Amino acid sequence: MVFLSKDKVLLLSFWVGTVGILLTLIPKNKIRNAMVAFFYKQLVTWLFGLLVVEKGLIKYPVRLFKKANKTSFSFEYFFYPVLCAVFNLHYPENKNKLIKFLYYLLNIGFITLVEFFAERYTNLIKYIKWKWYWSFITLWLTNYSSRLFYRWFFKDEFKFVLHSKLKNTGVME
């Protein structure tokens, strides 16, 4: 019989929860959009993750694929990208700047809080020369860059939506 450590059970729980997020918060008609944000975030977190781990700022004592590299496959390649895809799909595009700021703050704050508690109470992540606020800043910047990329990639859709809204309000007549 195989017994899993509490850290591996927690990691498995993160996987199940993240799959649940995928299934409930990404509509079928937006899978293509989600994939763009997901893959962009994977690329960025892969680069940052490798840099941070190789510089000895963070380590991941309990992780999948221990022999492949020292980063956390779960965090860098799955959890953060899924949350970024949801972030982009549900972004309050037509709201004011305060709502958009709060959207960033709550999303990034939640992820940072989860990481903070994972660092403090598990062996999933350990800060060596790192602080929670560096995670907050890098997550904010990577989500912001993913938002810029997402808007650029789907610029024709954004133009169409904006044009339709202006036309419906009588501005474009």
Tell me the number of strands: 2
Give the count of helical stretches: 6
Give the proportion of residues in helices.
over 70%
Tell me the strand order in the biggest sheet.
Answer: 1-2
Distance between the termini: 72 Å
- Fraction in beta strands: under 5%
Poorly predicted sequence stretches spanning 5 or more consecutive residues: none
Q: Provide the succession of SSEs.
A: HHEHHEHH
Largest sheet: 2 strands, antiparallel
Radius of gyration: 18 Å
Q: Give average pLDDT, whole number.
A: 89
Q: Explain this structure to me?
A:
- With 173 residues, the chain is mainly α.
- Helix content is 71%, strand content 2%.
- The protein contains six helices and two strands.
- The chain has helices spanning 6-25, 31-54, 73-89, 97-121, 132-153, 155-168, and strands at residues 58-59, 126-127.
- Strands 1-2 form a two-stranded antiparallel sheet.
- α2 runs antiparallel to α3, α2 packs antiparallel against α5 and α4 (97-121) crosses α5 (132-153).
- The longest helix is centred in the middle third of the chain and has 25 residues, at 97-121.
- It is globular.
Explain briefly what this protein structure is.
With 173 residues, the chain is an all-alpha fold. It has helices at 6-25, 31-54, 73-89, 97-121, 132-153, 155-168, and strands spanning 58-59, 126-127.
Descriptive key words:
single chain; 173 residues; mainly alpha; 6 helices; globular
What is this structure's SSE topology?
Blueprint: H1 6-25, H2 31-54, E1 58-59, H3 73-89, H4 97-121, E2 126-127, H5 132-153, H6 155-168
Antiparallel strand pairs: 1-2
